[in-house]
Every structure is written in structure tokens, then in C-alpha cells.
Amino acid sequence: MKIHLKTPQQIERIRKAGRIAARVLRTCAEAIEPNRTVDVELDQLAERMVLEMGGFPAFKGYRLYPSVLCVSINEEVVHGVPSGRVLRSGDIVTLDIGVYYEGFCCDTAITVIVGHADYQRKRLVRVTEEALQKSLEVARAGNTTGDIGAAAQQHAEAFGFKPAKNLAGHGVGRFVHELPDIPNIAQPGTGVELKPGMVLAIEPMIVMGEPEVEISENEWAIVTRDRKPAAHFEHTVVITENGADVLTVE
Ligand code: MF3
Ligand code: CO
Ligand code: CO
After folding, report:
1. Ligand 1 nearest atom to the CA of residue 234, by list position
2. Residue 71 resides in a domain
3. 2 domain-assigned
4. 233 in any annotated domain
5. Mean pLDDT of the chain, nearest integer
6. Four-CA torsion 204, 111, 61, 169, nearest 10 degrees
7. Please, which pLDDT band fits residue 219 given cuts at 50, 70 and 90?
8. E strand or H helix that includes residue 17
9. What count of other Cβ atoms lies within 10 Å of the Cβ of residue 214?
């Protein structure tokens, strides 16, 4: 088990996969509205778009996962299976997708609010997105995986939120999950030193309540034990001498 650095050519393939994934997430987010059962439809929309753009869904079939998207609602932190749950105004919905392009893959997620949410829910989503930005700012050669996690953790805690336990980011590119792990709970300076050519999925998962999570009855979704909501943003980046180059953008 080792960390595979990616070549410039491989990175360009991941960038193409990332562009497809970003477009799909934006389109799916725009399709979300209250009182609709959009998640199965969304999965079909995502699949069609990925294939039309020359990509291939990375999650469907991975460890027997059944769908193109992970759609995680409220207390579902990650790995929610699109299954026909009706969305209500105020729900917090995370859309997570992996796309392959010419044998190389990315992994990216966004969280959106359905209709109108209360102040604390809006704050959770905003702080989680900012936590990802804080992590990206320290994701550069010479820093460590712990620096990435600590930056997100410190930002979340400054607003009274916490990273979910036992869930981490990861290397990505040839496979959906590669080494190294990117913790979301960490001390600065710990972990693995970042090197140019490392491709990483950085993904703070932040909760409003207590950080413990458990596997739900459907055996895929990971939910907060206290059933309070979570938010999650994820980008795939390549580490360069100058910082993190974000690959999952349009
Ligand atoms: N998107 C998840 C992550 O960010 C991985 C999904 S794996 C699947 O690591 F099997 F659930 F699709
Ligand atoms: Co993901
Ligand atoms: Co990931």
C-alpha cells in the first residue's frame, strides 16, 4: 500500500472528470425543490449527463453501491442512496459524485438547502463550505494531511460545530479511495507530508450536534447518532509547489 503520485497527463484526465462532475452537481442542485421526490430522477439525470460528456460513473458498482450519486439528507452524513425520499423545505441535501474519464477519477460533493431553512441550518452549510476553503488554503507541498484536517476542524469549532467522527477524505485518481487518509479531526503538523502530484479528495463533514455517527438500517447511509443534520463539501485537488489546484470545477 503506497501513495501514487499522478503524472501531468493523468492529472489532465482527472481534471476532465472533475469538470464533468462539477457540471452534473450544479445541474442536479438546480433541479432540487421542495415537495418533490427528486432523488431517483436526479440519479438518472446525473447518469445521462456523465455518459453524454464522455465520462463514466465511478460509484455505481463500487463496493456494490447501487447509484451514480450519493444523496444524503439531513441526518445522513454520507452515502445516502437515492430512494424516493420526499424533500421538504428546510432539508439539507448533499450531492456527492465520482466520475471516471479515460481511466482516472475524481470525487466531489456539495450541500444545498431545499427552499428555506432556519438560521442555524444555513450557518451549518456556510461554515462547512468555508471549512473546505480553509483546508484548501493549507493543502500545499511541505504541509501535512493533519494541517488540512486541523484547518477545517478549527473553522467548524469556531462556529460551535464539529467534524463527524470516523469519516475522512482520501487519495483519489486511479481508484475512488486511495492513500493517504485526510482526517477531518487532526493536530497541525501530524500525518503524511504533502508532495507535488498527490491527488486528494478533501471533504469536511460537519455536524450541528454530537459527532458520533452510525450505519443506518438501509446499510449504506451513515447517519448522526443524535439525528441532527450534517453538511459536506468535497473537492478533488492536486498538490503543487504553490498550493492546491482544484480539479472539480467547471
Ligand atoms: N463519495 C464518497 C467519498 O467521498 C465515496 C462514495 S463510495 C460509494 O468518499 F460506494 F458509496 F459510492
Ligand atoms: Co465523495
Ligand atoms: Co471522497
Report:
1. 4
2. yes
3. no
4. yes
5. 97
6. -10
7. confident
8. helix 8-31
9. 11
Question: Does pTM surpass 0.90?
Answer: yes
Residue nearest to atom 11 of ligand 1 (CA): 79
User: CB within 5 A of ion ligand 2: which residues?
Assistant: 96, 107, 109, 234
In a domain, 3, yes or no: no
Residue found by looking up cell 500500500 in the block:
1
Counted domains in the chain: 1
The CATH number of residue 198's host domain is: 3.90.230.10
Range of the domain at 169: 8-243
Which ligand 1 atom is the nearest neighbour of the CA of 60?
12
- Residues whose beta carbons lie less than 5 angstroms from ion ligand 3: 107, 201
- What is the average pLDDT across 35-53? 94
Which atom of ligand 1 is found nearest the CA of 170? 9
Distance, CA 124 to ligand 2 centroid (Å)? 19
* Cα 202 to middle of ligand 2, angstroms: 9
pLDDT value of position 184: 96
pLDDT(8) > 80: yes
| Strands in 74-225 per DSSP E | 76-78, 92-101, 104-113, 162-163, 169-171, 178-182, 199-202, 205-207, 213-215, 222-224
Which residues form the pocket of ligand 1, taking CB atoms under 6 Å from any ligand atom? 59, 62-63, 65, 70, 79, 96, 98, 107, 176, 201, 203, 234
CA of 59 to the centre of ligand 1 (A): 6
Give Cβ neighbours of residue 61 (< 8 Å, ≥ 6 apart): none
Q: Which pLDDT band holds residue 217 (cuts at 50, 70, 90)?
A: confident
